[in-house]
Amino acid sequence: MRTFGNLLVRGLIVGLFAGLLAGTFAYVMGEPHIDAAIAIEEAGGAAHTHGDEPAAAGEEEPLVSRTGQRFGLFLATSLYGVALGGIFAVGFALLRRRLRTPSDSYAALGLAAAGFVGIVLVPFLKYPPNPPAVGDPDTITKRTVTYLLTLVIGLLAVWAGVAASRWAQRFGDAPWIRLAVGGGAFVATIVAAYLILPAINEVPGSFPATLLWQFRFASLGTQAVLWTLLGFGYAALVDRNSQVTTPAEGATA
């Protein structure tokens, strides 16, 4: 009998390794763009410094050096991976019986794909991340709230698409019908949310567009590596032929 604890431990282990490898990707692909953005920010600050003032006037030393930030990147992605792996395992244990596939591996991969679309891709398309040199500190609360709202809407859109796809079975078992209805419900939910949520664009016109999108795609790639490794790693560890015992079932056994 496969227990909830076993599933959770597997999720934590897979999440740790996925976080480490995602951190490696972010270090190789993202850190050079961050350094370039910081250089642009520092150059802009130096240009506004009056010639009769000391170069360091009004400037504050960063709380964490760039070297410390680079090492902290791996710690952050590892902790994030562990937390995400635990949440993923809980979701798998609770939703496994509702996923209409006989294979646990396919169920894990489908759950990872849905999580990536709802948690990462939907918010990215509306509010793509910006490098350190971009953004107004006074709007950080607004940007955080709108991003979290988009994340919740992304998950709701995935749920709406799945629910609509299953409802479409009433009109026939043709896969294209389910795909069209489910995809339509998903897209309609996202489009409605995008139209309602406010637009936030704080990128100055002087900032290099190439550097901006290189940073954004590096951020998206980091999340893609994390979710891909999480999905395939968890799919490889789950036992397809054993039964899941959830905490509630274990208490009543």
TrEMBL record:
The keyword Lipid metabolism does not apply. InterPro entries: CbtA_put (IPR012666). It comes from the Bacteria. The keyword Transmembrane helix applies. The chain crosses the membrane at residues 7-28, 71-94, 106-125, 145-164, 176-197, 217-237. Keywords: Membrane, Transmembrane, Transmembrane helix. This is CbtA family protein.
